[in-house]
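> call design_seq(struct)
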């Protein structure tokens, strides 16, 4: 059987996209998914998404991590699948779709290269020593650091993700450094089990955690630089809850192809 796929990237976070509206592919196969995401023996990607039909929504986003396991929400993946839906003619500029963490609204530019994705509201941030821990659709650990550009993100992130507190369920680890009017962020992602060029739920978590850290309230916009480019997060914070959270950035189709499975 041959799979027709597309490759997308959002600020360097890259994904395999498959139009599965006809349910032609049973994707509940850990070995197959991991093989397709393998950068040496497969297509290569930080994850894979299947666009499927869902009553009451424009489409459903089904996402797997590169290790072949079903994943929690992926923000950059969400932006890329919106661009894919526009490419397929399913949507024009606005959409409501279903993901693993619930409904999402998004808006895509007329040119199709900039996506603004609404994320879930957040009303709980806890502390682990100097770090902030919160869930923005996926669980995140946010820690302020210095000289992030030269940090060994794999070694330090792997150690935190696999410590006694987080080993069982895993956690994404974000190292943050203030830069100009925003932040520079590098992320170790569970499921990928390595650093990625960008993490959408991660930069969202960083923006919210830093608002709390610096006692900012009101309508806030936070630009964040990652290894793969620039992202923007805007939200409202009343000192208790974070609402109207939007993750914004590029979503670009890289290539398409077919692969035998």
């Amino acid at each position: 059987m041959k799979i027709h796929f597309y490759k997308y990237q959002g600020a360097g976070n890259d994904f395999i996209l498959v139009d599965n509206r006809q349910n032609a592919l049973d994707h509940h196969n850990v070995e197959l998914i991991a093989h397709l995401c393998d950068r040496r023996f497969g297509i290569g990607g930080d994850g894979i998404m299947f666009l499927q039909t869902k009553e009451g929504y424009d489409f459903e986003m089904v996402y797997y991590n590169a290790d072949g396991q079903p994943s929690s929400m992926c923000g950059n993946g969400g932006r890329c699948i919106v661009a894919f839906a526009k490419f397929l003619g399913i949507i024009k500029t606005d959409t409501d779709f279903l993901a693993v963490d619930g409904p999402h609204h998004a808006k895509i530019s007329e040119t199709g290269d900039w996506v603004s994705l609404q994320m879930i509201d957040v009303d709980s941030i806890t502390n682990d020593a100097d770090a902030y821990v919160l869930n923005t659709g996926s669980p995140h650990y946010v820690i302020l650091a210095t000289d992030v550009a030269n940090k060994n993100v794999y070694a330090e992130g792997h150690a935190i993700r696999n410590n006694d507190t987080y080993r069982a369920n895993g956690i994404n680890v974000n190292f943050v450094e203030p830069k100009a009017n925003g932040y520079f962020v590098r992320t170790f992602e569970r499921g990928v089990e390595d650093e990625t060029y960008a993490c959408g739920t991660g930069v969202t978590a960083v923006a919210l955690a830093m608002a709390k850290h610096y006692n900012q309230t009101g309508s806030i916009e936070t630009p964040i630089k990652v290894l793969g480019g620039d992202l923007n997060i805007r939200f409202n914070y009343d000192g208790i809850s974070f609402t109207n959270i939007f993750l914004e950035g590029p979503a670009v189709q890289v290539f398409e192809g077919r692969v035998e499975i």
